[in-house]
Amino acid sequence: MTRLPRNAVVTGASSGIGAAVAERLAHHGCGLLLVGRDQARLDAVAVRTGGRAVVADLRNRAGVEAVCDAADGWAELLVHGAGVGAAGPLAETPADVVDELLAVNLVAPVQITRTLLPTLRAAHGHVVFVASVAAIGVAYEATYSATKAGLRGFADALRVESEVGVTTVLPGAVTTPYYERRGQPYHRRFPRPVSPERVAEALVEAVRRDRAEVFVPRWLTVGARVHGVAPAVFARLSRRMDRRADTPAV
Ligand SMILES: NC(=O)c1ccc[n+]([C@@H]2O[C@H](COP(=O)([O-])OP(=O)(O)OC[C@H]3O[C@@H](n4cnc5c(N)ncnc54)[C@H](OP(=O)(O)O)[C@@H]3O)[C@@H](O)[C@H]2O)c1
C-alpha cells in the first residue's frame, strides 16, 4: 500500500461524490484544491475540509485553464469528479446537451490531465477518473455512456504511457443530486443506489493500493466481464432488464 499524496485537486467538489471524496481526503490530511461552479456550496466544502475553492465552468476552455493555473506545480493527486448526465432516446437529445456532456465529462478531464501531467509526473502522482458503469453501455444514456467509455479508454492508455498512477472508478447508482439535475429519477430495481461516502472510501482505497479499476459496488465487475467476453449476450440481457425496469424499484 502506498501513502496518499499530500495535495489533491478534486473537480465536482461542490456536490455528491466529489464533496465526499474531498471530505475523505481531508480526513487523511490532504491539502485540497476544490473545483465547482456553485460558489456557496463549494465554500461550504472548503470550510469543512480546509481546502481552497476555485470556481470554474468546465464546459469551456477558460474554466479548464483556471483549474490548471491553480494546480500547476502543486497537484499530486487529480480526481476528476465533475460530471453531468442525460437520459432519453438519442434522437430526442438536444445538440447542446450532447455538447455539454462531451465537454464536462470527457474534454475537460482530458485537457486538465494533459496540462498537469508534467506536475503529476514530477510528484510521482496519481489521476482518478470518476467514470460510471455506463461505460459498458446503458440504453437511453448513449452520449453519457460514450463519455464514460471515453474516460476509461483514456485512462487505460495513460496508465501504459505515463509514469503516474491511474485509477478509474465505475460506480453504479449513487444517492446524489445527479438524477434530479439530469431531470429523470433513478428507476431501476438494481443496482441499488449506494452512498457517495461509500464511493469516496473505495476511491481513496484504490489510490492507496494503486488499483487500475474499481466498480462500486464491486459485484458490478461481473457485468463488465460479461460485456467483455460476449457483448451481444450483454446487450440481450440489458434489453430484458430495461423492460423490467418499467416496474418501480422496491
Ligand atoms: N450519481 C450517480 O448515480 C453516478 C453514478 C455513476 C457515476 N457518476 C459520476 O460521478 C460524478 C459525480 O456525480 P455526482 O453523482 O456526485 O453528481 P452531482 O452531485 O450532481 O455532482 C456533480 C458535480 O459536477 C460539477 N459540475 C457539473 N457541471 C459542471 C461544469 N460545467 N463545470 C464545473 N463543474 C461542473 C457540479 O458542480 P456545481 O454543482 O457547482 O455545478 C458538481 O460538483 C459524475 O462524473 C457522474 O457522472 C454518478
From TrEMBL:
Broad enzyme group: oxidoreductase
GO function term, MF aspect, one: oxidoreductase activity
Record keyword Oxidoreductase present: yes
EC number: 1.-.-.-
Domain (Ketoreductase) ranges: 6-177
Pfam families: adh_short
Record keywords: Oxidoreductase
Family: Belongs to the short-chain dehydrogenases/reductases (SDR) family.
Protein name, entry field: SDR family NAD(P)-dependent oxidoreductase
Organism the protein comes from: Pseudonocardia yunnanensis
